[in-house]
UniProtKB/TrEMBL annotation:
<comment type="subunit">
    <text>The glycine cleavage system is composed of four proteins: P, T, L and H.</text>
</comment>
<feature type="domain" description="Glycine cleavage system P-protein N-terminal">
    <location>
        <begin position="461"/>
        <end position="734"/>
    </location>
</feature>
<dbReference type="InterPro" id="IPR015421">
    <property type="entry name" value="PyrdxlP-dep_Trfase_major"/>
</dbReference>
<feature type="domain" description="Glycine dehydrogenase C-terminal">
    <location>
        <begin position="774"/>
        <end position="895"/>
    </location>
</feature>
<dbReference type="InterPro" id="IPR049315">
    <property type="entry name" value="GDC-P_N"/>
</dbReference>
<dbReference type="GO" id="GO:0004375">
    <property type="term" value="F:glycine dehydrogenase (decarboxylating) activity"/>
</dbReference>
<keyword id="KW-0560">Oxidoreductase</keyword>
<protein>
    <recommendedName>
        <fullName>Glycine dehydrogenase (decarboxylating)</fullName>
        <ecNumber>1.4.4.2</ecNumber>
    </recommendedName>
</protein>
<dbReference type="InterPro" id="IPR020581">
    <property type="entry name" value="GDC_P"/>
</dbReference>
<feature type="modified residue" description="N6-(pyridoxal phosphate)lysine">
    <location>
        <position position="706"/>
    </location>
</feature>
<comment type="function">
    <text>The glycine cleavage system catalyzes the degradation of glycine. The P protein binds the alpha-amino group of glycine through its pyridoxal phosphate cofactor; CO(2) is released and the remaining methylamine moiety is then transferred to the lipoamide cofactor of the H protein.</text>
</comment>
<feature type="domain" description="Glycine cleavage system P-protein N-terminal">
    <location>
        <begin position="17"/>
        <end position="440"/>
    </location>
</feature>
<keyword id="KW-0663">Pyridoxal phosphate</keyword>
<dbReference type="Pfam" id="PF21478">
    <property type="entry name" value="GcvP2_C"/>
</dbReference>
<dbReference type="InterPro" id="IPR049316">
    <property type="entry name" value="GDC-P_C"/>
</dbReference>
<dbReference type="InterPro" id="IPR003437">
    <property type="entry name" value="GcvP"/>
</dbReference>
<comment type="similarity">
    <text>Belongs to the GcvP family.</text>
</comment>
Length: 954
């Protein structure tokens, strides 16, 4: 035997690792669809009119080791300075057990949004802890389970105040002491709604009668701690509501805004253990009064009971708010920041109330000592009272200070020609203070004596605003302080949940595919984690290279000319896209164009977003096949031709079909003066096969947390970049720290920058061929499932060729009449079989939408189909009376371990209840609670940790 033919280079195994089915499986699956090759299948699926529009011009994929080496080299171009910029972003320590057991743990990061409460009790508990943490620290009655960032949370607060305020004036007063990025996003968000944002000094404001609301920052962006007690009273007297953007760490020492009358408290939880990451992702928080809870944006976890009367958590009332209220929804937020909220809540749990105030005290002491030293060095510290942030009128020119800082690898905040800003944080110590003194001292001057100053310096918190109310008294914040205990708590919660690390999550429209370890590894490298979003550009060369390359990759995948990575969720991409359309029309003197056509089948974020962008929604009907009714579209487009702004359409359709007439649909819109927004949530069916930018789209958002492998995180983070044709490029979001200054939609220039390496790695490893193959396999798997299940459940929509795209809708409505079994019962019964339910009742009530993705092996697809078929047999047994119509395993699903012990009163066996197939004996998922009662929870709304005694008694 000779070795002559052994390969020498490293092979790219990644494509085959990402894709579930093996070659032999693919042949079997193809046979079931009646095709002999992937190309033949896709040729039948993709409509003739859009074939060949893909221009996926990307190099061949690279193996995992090579791609990791390449991204390491890019990361190395980022410079890690010591950041004292502050402005809402602070270095912090991510406790190692949280880093390893939560942030880097697929049991946490691959979970889906907890719409199915029975398989989500772990992350729901963690989010309830987050809500409790926020409620306690802000002094408010109710807090949501996270928003996208502080600036967008402030924008949500603005519209929230507008809805609820008794004062109907059109203006919103915003303190000039708010963070500049917050002001920018507020300006963007106010304009289309006709809200006037008045930025000024609240101290000089006497009369509030002209404002429906007020936004303050506490402590101020530059450090001062204002006493807002009298001001809030005056605002309330004029009928205005008061929102306060607050710093969580400061609130451990300061009177919480809830105690001086704030109506909303919002901010960022970043410094509770989440890396800077060049701006995100971080969890924002939003807290308010109990009376306003039904108007709160975002998701809210509440306590309810299960079928057995035991406490059980679930998302409360607003869960699917946009889907129900559409253009009347209070907000378009869908994906939020669950993973980051969980990190923040675990950080608080690990440190406990004493640990947190200890950290805050230390940061404040260091800042006080720093201030004294700066004064000794001849500089003027502007604040009398502060927490961790100072603005300093420098004795020598500010340029010299910044240059000296730069020479020591320190970043200070650039304020103006006379002042610099600086903030301290939990990673600071004596050495950091002395390094700052050295920067301010200039060459040759001796530094203040730290020990002497420490002995002589008292606190600089305002005595009348010291916090007196205790916080985090709940047991959960007082018992997991050893690493062993925390590790086990994290494990215990993760074990309650069903994430991708256990089984497939066949969610139509949500694309739960592999989040490969090699894609995930770079995100926790300090080269990406430790950069401040407002650090000078030359320190972020690695990020700029990465984002530049990623933009080009996404242009190649979509056929668009430019991409903005700033939107930090799909909903925000939709918003940025509609604003680009709005800006384009205005630039042509057609700002009257404000009608947005949206098919009735659209995702709820579409109409909610159109409303936020100041557009009026006109609904277009769908035909019996689930396609856009082109005649209705034409009629409405022509009727509104003078005012038509846009069509928002999802492609392939939300019904999982490649509509044949998409080009015509786009042309009708264009002919009547509108722009075409193609919602790219279904891009997983298209990459490498067809490109929205080439068949009529003017703009699309992509969900990088769907198609491009960013994990769902249990409900966020996400990234929702938009691609646009060149005529819309001038209207992409800008940012105060980018060339184009106006129109920011996120707090940070690149939104959730630190998770962009995931998508870069995915595309780099797959290459053009691999991405195309992934789309083909996604289509094959969906058609395979449709074929296997169609004789058991009707597949609701197919294309004219009888094929579906990358997902299929199973119609369960007929079963309701014949057996009494609902789509809910089937979804819950799937839990007994170890599966997460498919998407329920979207886009059609009473149906399940299944999207398998390319990453699931044939074995897993078969396991799912077998479960669905077995469930169909159970339904049949209910239909023909073999199973009781009311007391059967479907109606009672899911079954918990606890209900197996003691008396068993059901007419079916325990075996059928929990081991309906023998294969489950080898690895069974046990739901921790029985079916959750939603109505009870909404009637008895409780959204913070109950005292532990409540759980023990129940
Ligand atoms: C997921 C989805 C969205 C919203 O994206 P988020 O990132 O959750 O804001 C919009 N449209 C469709 C069709 C989707 O599936």
């Amino acid at each position: 035997m000779s070795n002559a033919h052994l390969p020498l280079g490293t092979e790219n195994e990644f494509i085959a690792r990402h894709i579930g089915p093996r070659d032999a499986d693919i042949a079997t699956m193809l046979a079931l669809t009646g095709h002999d090759s992937l190309d033949s299948l896709t040729a039948s699926v993709i409509p003739e009119s859009i074939k060949g529009t893909s221009v996926l011009d990307l190099p061949a994929g690279q193996g995992e080791a090579d791609a990791l080496a390449a991204i390491k080299a890019i990361a190395a171009k980022n410079q890690q300075f010591r950041n004292h910029i502050g402005q809402g972003y602070y270095p912090c320590h991510t406790p190692a057990p949280i880093l390893r057991n939560l942030l880097e743990n697929p049991a946490w990061y691959t979970a889906y949004t907890p719409y199915q409460p029975e398989i989500s009790q772990g992350r729901l508990e963690s989010l309830l802890n987050f809500q409790t943490l926020i409620g306690d620290l802000t002094g408010m009655q109710i807090a949501n389970a996270s928003l996208l960032d502080e600036a967008t949370a402030a924008a949500e607060a603005m519209t929230f105040c507008k809805r609820l305020s008794k004062n109907k004036a059109p203006a919103f007063f915003v303190s000039r002491h708010c963070h500049p990025q917050t002001l920018d996003v507020l300006r963007t968000r106010a304009e289309p709604l006709g809200i006037e944002v008045v930025i000024g000094d609240e101290a000089a404001l006497e009369d509030f009668s002209g404002y429906f609301g007020v936004l303050l920052q506490y402590p101020a962006s530059t450090g001062e701690i204002g006493d807002y007690r009298a001001l809030v009273q005056r605002a309330h007297a004029a009928g205005a509501l008061v929102a306060v953007a607050a710093d969580l760490l400061a609130l451990t020492l300061l009177t919480p805004p809830g105690e001086f009358g704030a109506d909303v408290v919002l901010g960022s939880a970043q410094r509770f253990g989440v890396p800077l990451g060049f701006g995100g992702p971080h969890a924002a928080f939003f807290a308010t009064r109990d009376a306003f809870k039904r108007d709160m944006p975002g998701r809210l976890v509440g306590i309810s009971i299960d079928r057995h009367g035991k406490p059980a958590l679930r998302l409360a009332m607003q869960t699917r708010e946009q889907h129900i209220r559409r253009e009347k929804a209070t907000s378009n937020i869908c994906t939020a920041q669950v993973l980051l909220a969980n990190i923040a809540s675990m950080y608080a749990i690990y440190h406990g109330p004493r640990g947190l105030s200890g950290i805050a005290r230390r940061v404040h002491r260091l800042t006080s000592i720093l201030a004294q030293g700066l004064k000794q060095l001849g500089h003027t510290v502007e604040q009398q009272h502060f927490f961790d942030t100072l603005s300093v009128v420098t004795a020598n020119p500010v340029d010299e200070i910044h240059a000296a800082a730069n020479a020591r690898s320190i970043n200070l905040r650039v304020l103006d020609e006379l002042r610099v800003g600086l903030s301290l944080d939990e990673t600071c110590d004596q050495a950091s203070v002395e390094a700052l003194w050295a920067v301010f001292a200039g060459p040759g001057r001796s530094l203040p004596d730290f020990a002497a100053l420490a002995a002589a310096t008292g606190d600089c918190l305002p005595p009348e605003l010291l916090r007196e109310t205790p916080f985090l008294q709940h047991q959960v914040f007082n018992r997991y302080h050893s690493e062993t205990e925390l590790m086990r708590y994290l494990r215990k919660l993760a074990d309650k949940d069903l994430a991708l690390d256990r089984s497939m999550i066949p969610l139509g429209s949500c694309t739960m595919k592999l989040n490969a370890a090699s894609e995930m590894i770079p995100i926790t490298w300090p080269e990406f984690g430790s950069l401040h979003p407002f650090a000078p550009a030359e320190q972020a060369q690695g990020y700029l290279e990465l984002t530049g390359e990623l933009e080009a990759m996404l242009c190649a995948a979509t056929g668009y000319d430019s991409v903005s990575l700033q939107p930090n969720a799909g909903s925000q991409g939709e918003y940025a896209g509609l604003l680009a359309i709005r800006g384009y029309h205005a630039s042509r003197g057609e700002s009257q164009r404000d009608i947005c056509l949206i098919p009735s089948s659209a995702h709820g974020t579409n109409p909610a977003t159109a409303q936020m962008a100041g557009m009026r929604v006109v609904v277009v009907t769908c035909d019996a096949r689930g396609n856009v009714d082109v005649d209705d579209l034409r009629r409405k487009a022509e009727e509104h031709r003078e005012r038509l702004a846009a069509l928002m359409i999802t492609y392939p359709s939300t019904h999982g079909v490649f509509e044949e007439r998409i080009r015509e649909i786009c042309a009708i819109t264009h002919d009547n003066g509108g722009q075409v927004y193609i919602d790219g949530a279904n891009m997983n069916a298209m990459v490498g096969l067809c490109a929205p930018g080439r068949f009529g789209g003017d703009v699309s958002h992509l969900n990088l947390h769907k198609t491009f492998c960013i994990p769902h995180g249990g409900g966020g983070p996400g990234v929702g970049p938009i691609g646009v044709k060149s005529h819309l490029a001038p209207f992409l979001p800008g940012h105060g720290h980018m060339q184009r200054k106006a129109g920011a939609v996120s707090a940070a220039p690149f939104g959730s920058a630190s998770i962009l390496p995931i998508t870069w790695m995915y595309i780099r490893m797959m290459g053009g061929e691999g991405l195309k193959r992934a789309s083909q396999l996604a289509i094959l798997s969906a058609n395979y499932i449709a074929r296997r299940l169609e004789e058991h459940y009707p597949v609701l929509y197919t294309g004219e060729n009888g094929l579906v795209a990358h997902e299929c809708i199973l119609d369960l409505r007929p079963l309701k009449d014949s057996s009494g079994i609902s789509v809910d019962d089937v979804a819950k019964r799937l839990i007994d079989y170890g599966f997460h339910a498919p998407t329920m009742s979207f886009p059609v009530a009473g149906t399940l939408m299944v999207e398998p993705t390319e990453s699931e092996s044939k074995e897993e697809l078969d396991r799912f189909c077998d479960a669905m078929i077995a469930i169909r047999e159970e339904i049949r047994a209910a239909e023909n009376g073999e199973l009781d119509r009311d007391d059967n395993p479907l109606k009672n699903a899911p079954h918990t371990a606890a209900e197996l012990v003691g008396e068993w009163t059901h007419p079916y066996s325990r075996e059928l209840a929990v081991y309906p197939t023998a294969s489950l004996i080898d690895g069974k998922y046990w739901p921790p609670v029985g079916r959750v009662d939603n109505v009870y929870g909404d009637r008895n709304l409780a959204c913070a940790c109950a005292p532990m005694s409540a759980y023990q008694e129940a």
